[in-house]
Amino acid sequence: MPPVRRQELIEALLEALDSSGNPSVVVPARRSNPVRLIVSLSEDSVDVWAYIWNLTHGGRPSLPDEYRIQMTGVMSPLQMNPNGVTVLLGYKADLNAFAGFDVQKHRNFTQGSPSVQIDINALYHADANGLGFDRKGNDEIAVGIRPDRLAFYIQKASELHQFAGASIDEVTLLQQAADNERIAGSAISLLPVERQKILRTTLVNARSATFRDIVLTAYGSKCAVTRVQLNLLDASHILPVNAPGSSDDVKNGICLSPTYHRAFDAGLIYLDESFVMHLNPDKIEHLRGKGLHGGLVTFRRPLERPISMPPDRHQRPSPTFIRKANHLRQI
Fold it and tell me: What is the distance between the alpha carbons of residues 104 and 102, in angstroms, rounded to a whole number?
């Protein structure tokens, strides 16, 4: 597949961030490298500078798995974002996958050969599991990134690249965390403190991404209450994550638009064991008393009727989780 045009690289970035629920916009003045994005991450908007090129074969027959970006059109040293995050990326269109490189390590480069390499198998692993790590011989970690994990990479790139120089066993643990595999606490405790933190953060993100994927897939990427798609969806736990007995099973999940997700988590709406979503009258009375019930007529229209559920009965909400969640919220 031939390299994609600049505009297509930018569109790939935007679509990747949207796929993980992190909408972003391009600052129009920066459509050349670096692309400047304003990305919604958690509750904040982050200013991101993304240097991005096509990822192509390295050209050496002796290294068939070596792929590279060629850092053309920029001068050394790379300009760094003084007010946010800077990342160095490659994009392979036929895989729809990204490569992430340590921008601090490659900020200064020789104009005659400005290229950075990654083993293509890291992207294959990312395509299947979310992230893939290439432990390079120059004390560097390169990262394969599936689109739905790009927002996490942007947030944690500097920490992930701190695994540069780590042992094979340490990088293996990081890969297991990214793959959402169970890891013994005793193994984690042997790592330096900073690597323990990023490993645990990676594991939490992997669990969240896996849960989001299975729930949105089960519900056909459609809000169970409003039936709206539009790529504006969250995967909500019926029984909250930290509650006793909660799990990341799809039966403990429901696909909701952000407004109804917040309402569900706050107990403003609740699901009964007949799979009907209701308003919580106690919460409504409390809001009325504070004069905060504006918009209620519109908000309640899709409620008091059965939710849209997964076609597969084995993926539908569990009455046990519903019952426990309502008990927890005193409903």
Answer: 5
Domain ranges of the chain: 6-162, 234-328
What is the per-residue pLDDT for 62? 77
Distance CA 180, CA 128 (A): 12
Q: How far apart are CA 182 and CA 29, in angstroms?
A: 45
pLDDT, tens digit, 9 for 90 and up, residues 38-88: 888 766 888 999 999 999 987 788 778 899 999 988 988 999 999 999 999
> How many C-beta atoms lie closer than 10 Å to residue 254's C-beta?
31
Q: Identify the pLDDT of residue 31.
A: 58
Percent of the chain with pLDDT over 90: 65
Cα separation, 200 vs 185, in Å, equals: 10
Q: pLDDT digits over 263-280, tens only? A: 999 999 999 999 999 999
* Residues 310/316, Cβ–Cβ less than 8 Å: yes
| pLDDT value at 192 more than 90 | no
Contact in structure between 280 and 270 (CB atoms under 8 Å): yes
Q: Phi and psi for 124 in degrees, rounded to 5?
A: -60, -40
Q: What is the overall mean pLDDT for the chain?
A: 90
Q: Decide: 93 and 12 in contact? Cβ < 8 Å.
A: yes
Q: Is 182 helix (H, G, I), strand (E, B) or coil?
A: coil
Question: In terms of DSSP bridges, do strands 234-237 and 56-57 run parallel, antiparallel, or are they unpaired?
Answer: unpaired
Handedness of CA 115, 119, 124, 127 (dihedral sign): negative
DSSP string, 120-167: HHHHHHHHHHSEEEEEETTTEEEEEE-GGGHHHHHHHHHHHGGGTT--
Residue-wise pLDDT tens digits, 158-177 = 999 988 877 888 889 889 99
- Rounded to an integer, what distance in angstroms lies between the CA atom of residue 40 and that of residue 228? 21
H or E stretch covering 188: helix 185-188
CA distance 293 to 87: 44
